[in-house]
Every structure is written in C-alpha cells, then in structure tokens.
Amino acid sequence: MPELRRCPITRRWAIIATERAVRPNGLRTTRDTVPPAISPFAAGNEHMTPPEIHAVRAPGSAPNGPGWRVRVVPNKHPALRVEGDLDKRPVGLYDHMNGIGAHEVIIESPDPDFRLQRLPREHLVDALETYRVRMQDLQHDSRFKFALLFRNHGAASGATVAHGHAQLIALPVVPAETQRMLDGAQQYYRSHERNIFDDIIRQEVDDGRRLVHDAGPFVLIAPYASRVPFELWIVPRFHATRYETANRDQLEALAGVLALALDRLDRGLGDPAYNLVIQSAPYGMDDVPWYRWHIQIMPNLTRVAGFELGSGFFINPTAPEEAAEFLRSLPA
Amino acid sequence: MPELRRCPITRRWAIIATERAVRPNGLRTTRDTVPPAISPFAAGNEHMTPPEIHAVRAPGSAPNGPGWRVRVVPNKHPALRVEGDLDKRPVGLYDHMNGIGAHEVIIESPDPDFRLQRLPREHLVDALETYRVRMQDLQHDSRFKFALLFRNHGAASGATVAHGHAQLIALPVVPAETQRMLDGAQQYYRSHERNIFDDIIRQEVDDGRRLVHDAGPFVLIAPYASRVPFELWIVPRFHATRYETANRDQLEALAGVLALALDRLDRGLGDPAYNLVIQSAPYGMDDVPWYRWHIQIMPNLTRVAGFELGSGFFINPTAPEEAAEFLRSLPA
Fold first, then answer.
1. Which CATH superfamily is domain A177-329 in?
2. CB burial of residue A304 (10 Å; 0-12, 13-18, 19+)
3. Which residue has the higher pLDDT, B227 or B31?
4. Residue range A112-121: average pLDDT?
5. Domain A3-28+38-174: which CATH number of 3.90.1150.10, 3.30.428.10, 1.20.272.10, 3.40.50.2300
6. Burial level of A190, CB count in 10 A (0-12/13-18/19+)?
7. Model ipTM?
8. Is B17 within 8 Å of A151 when comparing Cβ atoms?
9. Quick one: which of A105, A117, A165, A201 has the fewest CB in 10 Å?
10. What global pTM score does this model have?
11. Is residue B30 pLDDT above 50, yes or no?
12. Nearest Cα residue in chain B from A195
C-alpha cells in the first residue's frame, strides 16, 4: 500500500509509492524514454491496459476495443490505490495516511504519434471534455479532497510512455503548493475586494508585453514571475472557480487557445518537452469569488537544479517579455 | 541587470536572469554536460575564471596561480549582481526588485576529476571551512538576507561544468521554501517547547530503520517523508542555528559523515547525480532555540515531473527505510 507522509517541518506531503519501486538493483539511471516497439495506448492494443473507465467512442463500438478517440484507463503502476481506508495516524512525531487516491491515464488519441495541438478541433474539445468528466466524477468519492490533471510531454518532462497522454491524480489532501495559491488569492481578495486573476488580466492586456494571445474568453500570457523560460498561463476572463464547471462553448474556446499555445511552442522551440497542469480548486470549494481555475504550461528547456530544490526560488534566464514577443512573432 | 519578481498569487520569488539567456535561437535543448577539453577550474587555468575572492593556498603561492587546494571565484555568468541598489518598487500589482546578490563558485580541488568523498580528510575540512568563511563574509553586506550553499553533482543535477564545485548565492530576500521550514520549526517549538530536530533525532535513533549512520555529533538519516529515492539529511546533535557558527572540531566530524554519505551513494548507486544544500538560518537570525542548520542531499535518480511542479507534492518510489537499509548494508 502506498503511503502519504508529511514532513513535520515544512508540512509538505510526499507519496511513498514503493510499488513503482526504484530499487538499488533496478535503478533507472537512464532517463530517456525508450519507445517500445508497440504502443500500449494505440488502437488495437486495448488489452495492454487495464479495462477502460471511460471513452469517447464511435457509436456501436465495444469497450476495450478499437473505435475510440479518447480513452481513460487506470494507471497500470498507480502512485495511489483506490481501495482501502485512509488509516490516518501519527508515527511518533510524523503524520501518516494510506496512499488512497485515484491515478488515471487519459489517452487523447489512438495515434501513437499524435500531438494535442494537431488534433482536429472537435477531437481536442472531446479530450478537454473528458478531463472535465473525470475530474467531476472523482469528486463523488468523499475521501478525495483535490484532483490534479497534468500532462508530461517528452522524456525530459518525465513522460515514461512515448504515446501522448494526460494523467489525473485525486488526493485525500490538498497539496501545500495549491494551498499557498489559494491562500494568496484569498488574501488578495480580502485586501482589494477584487479577484487577482481579473487584475492580472487587466494589467497584462493593458501592458501587452507579456500577452501572447487575447482570445475573447481566455488570455494567453507569459506570467510576470515566470519560473522557467517560456512558461505560459491560460486564464479565463469569465469567473469560474473549478475547471469542472466549464461548458462546451468554453471548452471550444479553450481548445483554440491551448492549440495555439502548444503549436507556437512546438514550431518556435522545436517540440520542447513540457509539463501542463490544470490548476483547479479543491473539491467542495464550488464557487468562491477569489479563486479561478487556469492552466499552467512549463516547457522543460533548462534543468531544475539544487538551488531551486533547496529554496523554491527559480532562476529563469529568459524574460517573459522576450518569450511573449517571440511567440507572438511566429506566423499564425 | 537581473530582476527579482514575485508571483502575486503564491508570493514566490523568481530570478529573471537574462544575462544567462536561453534565447529562442540559442536554446539548450541537450542537457548533458559536454566535458570541455580543458577545465576552467583546474590548476594552471586560473586565468580562465574571474580573479579569486578567497583561497586555501600553499604558503608563498600567489593569488590566481597554482598552489591552491580550495579556491573561490565569482560566477562568470552570475544569476545576480553585486553592484547596485535594490530599487524595490511595484510594477502594477507585482513586486519587483533588482537582482542584487552574490553568486560565487567554490572549487574544492584543482583536480578536474576529484570527488568530494575521496579528498584527504583535512582537505575536505578545508572545503567545509571555506563554505563557512564565505557564508559568514557575505552577511556583512546589509542588502543580503539569506545565503544558500549548494552543490550540483553530475549533469542530471543541473551541473554545467564537469569539474566539481559548490555554489553560494546570497539573496536580498528569504526564499518562500526556507520561510516555510522556519515557520514549521518555530510552530513546533511553540507547541512543544522542544526543538523539532532534537525530536527527529531521538525518534530516528530509537527507531533505527531510517538511520544510516550515527556519528556522535551528527546523525545521517533518510528522512521520513523523503521526496526522492535515497534523500539523506545530516543533522547536528548539538544546537546551532547557523552553519557559519561551526568550529573546526565540528567541521571535522561533519567531513567524516559527509564523506560517508557521499561514498555510500557513490558505491551503492554508481556515482549518481545529486543536489546538496546546506540549510542554514537567514542572516540576522543568530541564535533561536527552534531552528537548526542541516544538510540535505537529494540524489537525482528519477525526474521531477508535472505532478511535482504543479502540486509541490513528490512521488517517491523508494521508501526511506529501504534506502537506509541498503546504504547501511554496504561494506564500510
């Protein structure tokens, strides 16, 4: 059983997931994805994954066979387990709970070489809708407090299966980093009676230097305090605390701006590895005026090194103004 | 001039250091260290670095020539600049200050192939003493609030020069991660009237499963909530808030346990890349009962991926009990 353990000093949780073991005799010291001869996520190979949880399928096609365009399966090597009790208890001065949670894989296309930004628009909307459906579904389990939808693209980003996919992890705790974001947004609202995301959008649209694309319901910006070169945020103009409340119209607009962002990174920087995260509010926080869901994209062009790990302080060699200007300058 | 910029939501600072630019036309997409034909840090090549700030030298040898065994120089591509004013000001809703700080390189041996753990003991003590001297010296600049001494070993850890070295960054702010550690330790002390590091040592020595080595004034442990496989902490048994107060006896004992830790990682895991950080208290916090300096070593055996970046929540596939047992089992 995986465990959640909390550092008593920083209060940060770690998942000790020994079933994904990196053991002394089997250490992964090479980090590059070795493309397997066969993609376990491709059409026709549905038997290579656990049975599907959800799929967007051609009418009449049977589950766990071809005919799908978006497919959701449990992670074969989950960091967390769905079955069991939390068993919260102290271990001396430490905090322990069982590693209860969901760990799903969302395969956005049966084509092993697909790129999200090149999918037909309606197909991409189906993928974004699938993210929404799965995030919403997991909230019914009262053990879960938070869900994180993320996408590691490319070996340098930590992807271990070359066939593109997103992952969804539902957790029995709210991560410290998320809590800080929530606390910061709430404090700003208390001081100003305004949503901080509205103020960020207003300033970035007025200023223009860090604005990559202004797409009606969404803005695409290189954030002022970008942690890494070419960090991008997609922020809704409309107010919504949680991604799961997005309707089809909103997801269509989101698909447009997401495809634009990923396409510019792809063409401008030569298909860089990236980490993408949907930052949504915790389960139960259904509508608060001070927080708004948004998407963060962090290309993986430099290494996170000792200084960053030791201080949480990022050194970014590329100004977001320069990144935004470069991305804007690419032909449409 | 580099800039410090603060995310208005998370309150986390980033250094925008455009003089270390990663520009679209010059992106580092390969991340492995290419060993240069000549080490700029080797004996005889002193002219390849900026003039030295400090050195441990043979009597009679001249600065910036051979004859040294530990040498400190300014970083040739510093993330921060020593000259100038902080110029703290708002940029709309954001916080800006100039990237004022020190960025030094501490070369612990003139031998391009040296390993810290294989240096003669007295030589290693000189290196640890040099860390101490430089951390102490920078506190005299009242613009600096905090210094981080770190060491990136191996290309996977972010090292960009193959010749081993430590780095020292002095900052005009206390990083958010450090502040959280300080806050957590202080809160524990308020609740219990005991230093949390004393309680951790007591529990780990009693329990034994995560104890790698008990070396008198220092314990070497795999921390309970280890973020990465084989994370190790060296914690002093004696009370000291800041590393800079360590005396020669203490540094001799530290050299012993540090060499043991790095030697076991080297032999047990095949010279893995690692990040090492000395976690000391901020400048001005000279002696508080609730905090204690310590060393954190994070081997780089798995990748930090989207989930970690998005949540601050680490997934660690190796239990610290297993890591400690393996490291203990190696022949001395």
1. HIT-like (3.30.428.10)
2. buried
3. B227
4. 96
5. 3.30.428.10
6. exposed
7. 0.90
8. no
9. A117
10. 0.93
11. no
12. B9
